[in-house]
Amino acid sequence: MAQQHFKNKFGFISHPNSAKFRDWAATHTFSLKSMFPTIQKNEIHPLDLSPTSDFLENKEDFHNLNLFAQKLEALQQKVPTKIIAGGYLEKRNLYTSDLYVRTNEEGAEKRDVHIGLDFWLPKNTPVHAILDGEVVCVTDDSHHKGYGGLLILKHQLSDFHFYTLYGHNTVSSVLKHPIGHQVKKGEQIAILADETENGDWVPHLHFEIMLTLLDFTSDFPRVAFESEIEIWKSICPDPNLLFKLEGF
Question: Whole-model pTM?
C-alpha cells in the first residue's frame, strides 16, 4: 500500500535514476579526507545504534547527551585512526519526538529507519564539498531534534542529477551560502555544531544522498517508515557507494 501511495503521488515505485546513479558511483570514489581535511582519516569504525546494540543500555540513554558523548569519546580513544560512523538503513530508538510519528487507520507508525550516514566528529569540525554543486537549500532547523544548520547541494551530471544533504552544522556556516551559489570541490561548506544549535544531538554530520527532493523545499527526511523502506532506498542510495569504505 505504501509503495502504491508513492507511485500515485510521485509517479514511480523505484526512482528512474537509481540505476544511473549506481553505475556512475561505481566509477567514482571519494575520500573522507576530502570531506574532513582537518581530520585526515579515511577509515571508519562502525557504530551500531540499533535496538539490539549494547553501546548504550536503553533508549533513554540516547538523550543523555553527556553520557552519549562520553561513550563516543571512550570508543574514539580505542580507534584513534578511524572516524566513528554508520547508520544507513539502521532501525533506531533515537527518534522519540512526535515529529517522527504518524497515525492512520492501521494505528501509529514511527519513522525510525535511518537513510543517511552519520559521522561522529567533534564540534567545529569543518566540512568540505567532495564535488562541485549548486546550493539549493539552507535552513536554520535548530529546534529540538531538528537538523540545526542544514545545507543541500545539487550535483548536475551529463544525463541526471542528484543531491547531497549535510545536517547538524552551525547555522551561520550554512546561511552564508546564497541559494544558487556554485560550490567548488574542496570548498568549505559547513562547520559541525554542538547541541546548542544542531538540534540537541551529540556533534556529528548527517550525510545523505537523494535522487529527488520530492516536494520538500527547506527540509528532507533523515529517517523513513519501515513500511516504505523500499521506495526510500531507491530515493536515498547508500552514501557508501561514493566512499566505498570497509566496515559498513
Answer: 0.91
